[in-house]
Structures are given as structure tokens and as C-alpha cells.
Amino acid sequence: MLYILLFIIVLYICIDVNYVVRTFFAVLSGRFTENKCSLDDTTTVYGICTFQDCDVTFKFIRSARLLRDLDFARYHFYDRTGIFQRSQDLKIKSLQGCTLILIADPVPLFSFYKINTKLVYWDNRSLFLEHEVITLRDGKLRAFLVSRQHGIGQNGESIEALLSGLAGFQNIKPCPDYIRHWLKSMKISSEKLRRQN
Questions:
Q1: Total domain count for the chain?
Q2: Cα(126)–Cα(112) distance, rounded to whole angstroms?
Q3: Domain for residue 191, yes or no?
Q4: pTM of the predicted model, to two decimals?
Q5: What's the domain range around 49?
Q6: What tens digit of pLDDT does each residue of 18-34 get?
Q7: How many beta carbons lie within 10 A of that of residue 151, not counting itself?
Q8: Is residue 115 part of a domain?
Q9: Which of 23, 33, 127, 145 could pair with 131 as two cysteines, CB 3.0-4.6 Å apart?
Q10: Is residue 49 part of a domain?
Q11: CATH assignment at residue 145
Q12: Residue 131, Cβ neighbours under 10 Å: how many?
């Protein structure tokens, strides 16, 4: 019994066990209870704000925990749309590039919420996903997030190669104004950093 307890303690120290369990739950629950989706569809995952998600006042969810939940929302979206399988077939890795966070009202402690995820734009190097965090009890939009995912292929494969053939690929989306301005602001910041170095 002591060895089992020691094994569990070492496992929790070395690996974020809760993250792994939640990832498998997000993906497998979608596989068994939902149909495949198009790139045009919105997918939804659910969560609850607990003490481990809160800031130091134990009243609201921390932004870092919200970003962590975006991982589960993305994994679910990738699996439901077929992006995950295509990335495995083409050996294209996904890398979180950056995230834009706008919090209107933080998610309170013990509140159930959902994260709606949809693909709003893609270019040759990146996917841009829009995430809405909505509390279930009042239907209030609590946060709006945009994440940029870079696709990195072994042989220089592009996002177009990744999405080609998936349902909804033919509906190429124009770049929304807010993403265009966001990209421009990141370019200006990058140039400023390069000048300082």
C-alpha cells in the first residue's frame, strides 16, 4: 500500500495528472457522444471554476486557468473537425503562437461555464480560433479569446495542406478586421524588440 501511495505522489510530482485526464475526457467524450464537425462549426466544452482555478481572493477564475481550459477546447475542436487526424497523417505539429484575451466579467467560483470554439480565419502558417467563455446560469459572455496556432510540418507543409479535404475547407474565410489589426500590432511590437536587440 505504501508503494502505491508513493507511486501516486511521484506521478503527481512529475506529471500534471489532472491535465492528462481532462485532455482524454475532452477528446473521448466528444468521440463517443458527438458527431464529426465541419471547419465552419462551433464546438463546445464545459468546465467549472473550483478553488484550484481561482486567483488569490478565491472569488474568480485566473486568466492562466482560462488559457489552460483553451487547450481542452482546442483539442476537442481538432478531434471533432478531423484536424488532429490530418496533422498525424502529415506529421504537422501545432504550436500555440499567441493569445488575445478580453475579459468582460470573470467567471465566479463554483460557476459552470462553457467554451465555444470556432475557426475564424487561417493563413498559410496559422489557424486563428475564437473562444467564447459563457457562464451557464445566466448565459453571460464572460470572456472572449482568440488563439493563434502555428502549423509546423517536417517538409514545410502549410495550413492549407492540413485543412485540404476537410469538411468546410472550401469556405475560405476573409481575415476579420480585429485579427488584421492584432497581427499589425504584433508586427510593430516585434520590430520594436528587434531594434532594441
A1: 1
A2: 31
A3: no
A4: 0.89
A5: 2-185
A6: 899 999 999 999 999 98
A7: 24
A8: yes
A9: 145
A10: yes
A11: 3.10.129.10
A12: 25
